[in-house]
Amino acid sequence: MLWKKIKRILASASLVLLAAQSFASNDDIDSKVDSLLEKMTLAEKIGQMNQYNGFWDATGPAPEEGFAKLKYDHLRSGLVGSVLNVSGYERVRELQEVAVNETRLGIPLIFGLDVIHGHKTIFPIPLAESASWDMDAIERSARVGAVESAAQGINWTFAPMVDISEDARWGRVAEGAGEDPYLGAHIGVARIKGFQGEDLAAVDTIAACAKHFAGYGFAEGGRDYNRVDVSPYTLHNTILPPFKAAAEAGVKTFMNSFNTLNGIPATGSAFLQREILKGKWGFEGFVVSDWASIRELIAHSYAEDDKQAAEIAVKAGSDMDMEGYAYINHLEQLVKEGKVDEALINDAARRVLRVKFELGLFEDPYRYSNQEREQEWLNHKTHMAAARDVAKRSIVLLKNESSLLPLSKKQKNIAVIGPLANDKNSPLGTWRVSADDNTAISLVEGLKQYNENFQYEQGVKFSVGKETFADQIEVNETDRTGFEEAKQLAQSSDVVIMMLGEHGFQSGEGRSRTKIDLPGLQQELLEEIYAVNKNIILLVSSGRPLDLSWAHKHIPTIVQTWQLGTQSGNAIADVLFGEYNPSGKLPMSFPRSVGQLPTTYRLFSTGRGTPKPVVFWSHYIDEESDALYPFGHGLSYTTFEYSKLKVKALGENRVQVKVNVKNTGKSAGEEVVQLYIRDRFASTVRPVKELKGFEKISLASGKSKTVTFMLTEKELGFYNAKGEFLVEKGAFDVMVGGGSVGGETAQFEL
Ligand code: BGC
Q1: Is 290 marked active-site?
Q2: How many whole angstroms separate alpha carbon 596 and alpha carbon 112?
Q3: pLDDT at 60
Q4: Low-confidence residues of the chain: pLDDT under 50
Q5: Residue 595 alpha carbon to ligand 1 centre in Å
């Protein structure tokens, strides 16, 4: 398969590059860190805990005055440990030279950047990639991001975001793996492996960062930065598991979070950072604050001023202050006044320095910025192929009740309608800091390589005003110019492909929505086109689950195409024309209406779950309770049949589950076989279903395969409110199928 080939190419490239790597042992590193710490002044140690955003002009002469000069002076005095948002051979080198040649001890900087879904070559947004349920593909995506960004001098990414969220109103669901902690943990680990590789000192691997610790995905009302008030049950069973998995996988850094968690700002939470992360989990890397989140302790009404904020944060275990100035301005004084123990500073500086040693920065501070690699690897054709491969695996066929898909390459009279169909920017999604604007392959471009028998009409303008990362998109709500042309085209066509949804800048940080419908006039356009031609293939491009209730009732074929990155149009065309049989499954439930939010398939059963002739049971009076498209849902051009589910308790809390899966359709296809359990009776009520295993298989038409799962204590147990892990004897249900609804069921006793 193509991806195997790509993997080989990437692996061989890495082997060549690995030649210069170092193999320092942990003991070596610890003793080097200790001897360096002995030479450092208190101020220099605090410097290692200080991270600046590199907004000054690093290519020009050092600024002569003002704030930028202050930062530059700090750099020269060894008071800066890390810089973010500086990338590119020249810029990185220039700053690194200052750190290495002009400071007293020559300690190199660590350069951080949000390499979230690719660097120059942009991959699907993380939520989309998660729909692939393909751990190899996801690891490869992170690997490419590491290869490209490392060539530009980056040695640390602020990814993966492993925040679980059940609320599609929250804009940052685009950056995560969806609603399920089990799937989310696997995806987080795959991404960490991709970024960090086998050897952190290799020139093409970078340190990863599990963020945002913790609870950020449970912002009340889905409103970004809002308070988080969750039970200990939710904290331990839903929020923390992906972070724990990240720590166990050896992630080098954590980022804390903007939100309060049950009344305490996460950045100032010793419970999260000291007790759980560094205590229970024994995490040895360092914790960076989120952007100025130490200073924000004041806005949270938790600290009176910067100085107190610094004191709280360092005591709570935040090791590095991102662009917050609280540490650099106050920690030294706090130690001198005896308010902060110098041992805390030593510990934080030690953690930062250890990662720098592990990255190999002390052996060669310039190893990550390399002009030749920069020229060779950015947008490399193997990276483009990998991006297309992951993108097609991320597409989810939500509904296909007509014979419209797959389309024939000879199909005549196709209409392509919708503002996003010809958009080269929006598919790049939310985090594309290093990509050039308008570099995605649009749908219109992608279709051409299969079939040119189509005409395009925009139908409606998407937005009025600026479309940038820092601005709010102003959606066109009034201008219907283009409606008539689109209707005429639809009327005279045999089939209509409509691409509608959200702009790439409508999800991500600071982009919460109270409505999760098709923005602007797009719903109106859809209904008007439907009135003249019902043969519609609706492609939904979005950074979150949208409310597709109307479309589901009327439109025969619906495909979730998210924001798929640089290769978007090519990947969608691969699926539309059947070159790739869709295999994506939803990592997050699509609700029937925004009023159902937050929601998840992992609900508890209520005391009143069964419908009653009177109104007094748990339901909505105006809407169904279940999701429109539940977690795990996704169709294929072929069909799969599940049978012969066999469960065998092997003793010692181990249970083997086997199921037979047959491809009963006409084409070859891939299927994500999903295993869910329900603990029937427990000392804490367990959800009606929980994903505890999955495997993606590939089957030729007519072929079958037996898939075997092993359930162990890890899958069968749960956390109680005190955070203790329990495995309780008793009856369990097991369900195996191609989604979280339906499938084969069986029982076992533990
Ligand atoms: C975000 C982080 C990000 C950081 C640096 C913050 O606003 O919450 O996820 O890594 O900025 O760009």
Answers
A1: yes
A2: 38
A3: 60
A4: 1-22
A5: 29
